[in-house]
Amino acid sequence: xxxxxxxxxTGFDMKKLIAASGQxxxxxxxxxxAWRYTGQFTRxxxxxxxxxxxxxxxxxxxxxxxxxxxxxxxxHHHPDGTATSH
Length: 86
Known about the structure:
Blueprint: H1 14-20, H2 43-48, H3 54-71
C-alpha cells in the first residue's frame, strides 16, 4: 500500500470500479431520448417558457420607475431638509 493507505478487507478496489464504469461507447437509448433536447424542448425554450410575461412585466416596471423618478413630484421633502408635521 502506498502513501499509508489502509488495506481493504473486502478486496473491493474503488479505482478499478471508476476506471471500468466510464462513459459507454454505445448508448442504446440515445435515439429514444434525443427528442428531449431538440425543437421546443431545447434548454433555451424551456427557460423562456418557464416565466411567461416576465419580459413584459420587467419593461413595464422599469418604465413606471423611470416615470416616478422623473415626473412625479415629492411633496414630503423640503429643500432646506426640514420636515413638516401633518
